[in-house]
Structures are given as structure tokens and as C-alpha cells.
Amino acid sequence: MKIAVSELIVRFMERLGVDHIFGMPGAHILPVYDSLYKSKIQSVLAKHEQGASFMAGGYTRASGKISACITTAGPGATNLVTGIANAYVDKQPILIITGETSTHIFGKGGLQESSGEGGSIDQYTLFKSITKYTKLIERTDYLANVLNRAAKILLADDSGPVLLSFPFNIQKEMVDEAVLDQVKTTRNNHHLRYDILAAEELAQLIQESSAPVIVAGNGCIVSGAQQQVSELSELMNIPVTSSLKGKGVVSEHSDLSLGSLGVTSYSGAYHYILEKSDLVIFLGASFNERTSYVWNEDLLKNKKIAQIDTSVEQLEKVFKADLAILGDIAIILNTVNSSLKEQLSSQKIQPKKLSDSLYKYRTKDTESENTDMNDLRSRFPLASLFFSELETHCPKNTMVFDDNIIFAQNFFHVSLDNRYYPNSGVSSLGHAIPAAIGARFAEKDFTEDWSVFAVIGDGGFQMCCMEIMTAVNYQLPITIAMFNNSTMGLIRKNQFQQYDERYIDCDFVNPDYELLSRSFGIQHYIVNNESEMKGLLSQLDHKNSINLIEIMIDKNTFPGYVSRR
Question: For position 334, which CATH number holds?
């Protein structure tokens, strides 16, 4: 039976398990939209293509499934770039479908042409460095090969965005529907192999060390290894710190949690590693600029290093490891934990004796013991109180998409019952609101009701606020916490600390957010002091309404850390 390529594309997505596609229609992609009309895939109309790409990313982070976005040629595709770059760095499986002018006018200057011919935009080159695979499909005879390659990448453990661009006339060509039978769209039921002897060697390193510490990253979450990491920590009394993206791998309320490691963190993790540890175990954590304190060599000096990662690119990328293991973190730790349990039960080894001073380094004790944290808390009392209230009134089934990072990194103790999604990737402002909206579309994948928060500054808010109307259009409840200081806070901080207070292009005038909220038809709350913050979250309906909480902070108050390049 013959079907249009546009129909084949939709059926391909259905077989991949795609159930939502985020985007905006345009003339050059309407055949695919027409084929979506009778599909079970829900198409979601965003207000801007960048918002659509952030929504797709938020959907994937919340559900763990392949997501998709769709745009027309030219500006529709180019508007995706930032969100797709974000997804590429975060290795998110996003299928991007774009339209293109018909092949017979390539090079003639067709409206919105991006074929790269005749001086037109070269979409392939534009997206090549921020996708795992990009293909402009000019013929149908190799369509099965293209779809196979796309599916293989999207279903891989080490995934990333895939972009397929279909010229208008190709979308309308008829092909045999049996093409789909040549495409494998199911995930292989296997994991990365690893040498069992390497797991035993890691167990041996742990036994021989006096003060091991675990640095847990997002790889632990992706591989579903939270239980195994917690078990290892508790079996051997090993403190755990996390990368920013790894917050919540172990409960940050645990006595063994050292909080989040990083240049913007005020936890004691850095000092514990520097002063106490003799073995650092990296689990799915890249030693990037933020986590490594700009690759401070003293942090790992004279220590043994072990590393487990699913990506060969991450192994020993910026440091030399005594033991580097490529493989699934959960599977490897199961072997490590089994070995250690056997040794413990036969009393051949003992759990590590924790230093009496460990309490000084723990995140939960920083209120009384860490003067730097006290200083940060005193500078930003409303931000600190907001996250304290969030923990109290939303202790479980809460997702937080965060643009600001520094407040949540230090004030928000993530439990195993909540999820924290920082603005990682290329760290683009304006991501939190559309990402939170994307996550809301994934809620059918959860067995319980979840509250979804977007935490953002007023600068980032103005980059994406119209996407709130997407939430309104689809009746998606989210709560937005916006810190209002009428400035680009990070830029103003740097200009204060490093440029002799020569402030330029950081300050701006805000709209009246109460009136703006009223025009959107959403709830608005303003917080000027602690009494207005206390108990506010308990009064809000997080599961049925859209709320904007405007939290006022001083533009001339800055965190104490200094950015170094």
C-alpha cells in the first residue's frame, strides 16, 4: 500500500513512542501537520520555536522518553537552535522534523529556503555541530536507511537530538508503507558491557581507602542508579556530594550528604574533598568548569580517583583516573555492593569510621556551622525562605525547573521524592518556563499527581513569558517563582566585582506583573517580606492553576563568589 511520506513520518514517530510534538506550523511543513490530524500524537502549539525546543527538552527530562518538535523551513528551524544546542549538551533524545522548499527550486532563492544552494541558508551546516545526526532528505529511495540511523541514535544510551528535514515535494511523494518494516524502532534490551574484574577492583579501592567520597552526577539519574548509590553510601559510610545536575541522587537530608559541589555552592563538599578524602569516586559526573572549581588541581591532588560513566568521551576527559570503567552505573554498583556486603557479613571489612568533624561539612548543618552560607542566607533571606517553604509544603512529587541555579543549589535540599532540573546544557536563560510546560505534558507517565515549579529571574522571564499562554491554552498548571531585581543579576555582579561598578546593559524596567498576570488569566502573588512568604505555598493550588509568585530582591546584593576565567 502506498502512503505519503508525510504519513510515513508520523507513523515512524508513533512507532518510536512519541506522543507529543512541540512546534509551530508553516507552509513548508503543512503536509506533516495534515498527517498529524488523525494521529494519536498530540501536537502542541508553542509561541516561539525556541520555546518548543525547550518544551521538548522538559518533556524528555521528566518522562525519560523520546520527544519531538516540528517547524517550518528557514526561520522556523533557525529559531530552534538554542534549545537544540541545550538538548545536545544534555544528550536528550529529541527528534526534530523541519520542512524545506521543494527540491526543484533549490538554489533559485525560494522563500525561506535553507538548502544551502545558491547562497541560501545552509541548515545542515547550522545544525551539524548540535545534533547527533542531521539529514536533508532529497530522495525517497534511501528513506529506510535514514530512519534506521535516526532511530538507532534516539534509542541509544548515549543519545542526542536528530534533525530530519523534508522538502515540501518529498513530503507529498508516495512510498510503500512497508518501508517502515525495514526500520527498527525498539530499544535493544542490553546494557553497556563491562569487565566484572573492574567492579571488583573498585570494591578493593574502597576497602583500602580511609576516607572515600562519592561525586554523583546526572549519569546516576539517567541510569536509574539512585538506589545503588545510596546503598553504597550507607553500606560503607561514604559521604556523597553531587554535581548540580546530580542533586537528589541521594537525599540531601541524609547525614551522609555533603550537598552540591561547585563554584557557586556554599556547601562544605569542596573542603571535605580537599581536607579529608583519599579516594574520589566519580559516578556519571563530568568534571566541568562549575563542578571542578575551574579545574582546580588542588581538589584532586594526592588522591586516588575512580570513575564510572556510560560515555567513553567522559572517561578521563580532564583528569587521570586510577580506575576508569565504561558501563551502566546501576549494574556495576550492584556488583560492587554485593562484593562489599559479602565482605561485611564475614567481618573481613568494616564500614568507614566517619570523622567527628563530618557534621561541619554537611549541607543540613551549614546554617549554624558555615559562615559563608550564613552570609548568603542573610543576603537573600526571601530566596532562602522560599526554598525552605518549598521543602515544607511540597515535600514530595514536586519537579523544579530552575534558571537561577545559585539559590536552589544552596538553599534547596532535594529529597528522593522530588526532582530538580537545573538550567544546564548551554545554560540559556528563559528555559525554565517552557521546560516546565513540557514536563506537564508528560504527567500521564506518572502514577501520582505532581506539582511543577519554574524558578526564574525577571530577565529570563521576559525572554519566555509568552509561553505562559501555551500553559493557559492547554490548561496546564504550573507555579512560577520569579525573583525580581530589575537587573541581569549575574552580569551586574560581575560588573560590580571585576569592572569597578561600570554598569552597562544590565538594568531594565519591569512591567506591572500583576496586570500582566491578569491579562494572562493567571494568579499573581507578590512577596516583599518574610511574613508574606511564610505559608504562601500552602495556600496555592499547584495542581489546578497557573501561579506567578513575584519575589522582590535587592539588585545591589550579590553572592560572594567571584567568576574566574
Answer: 3.40.50.1220
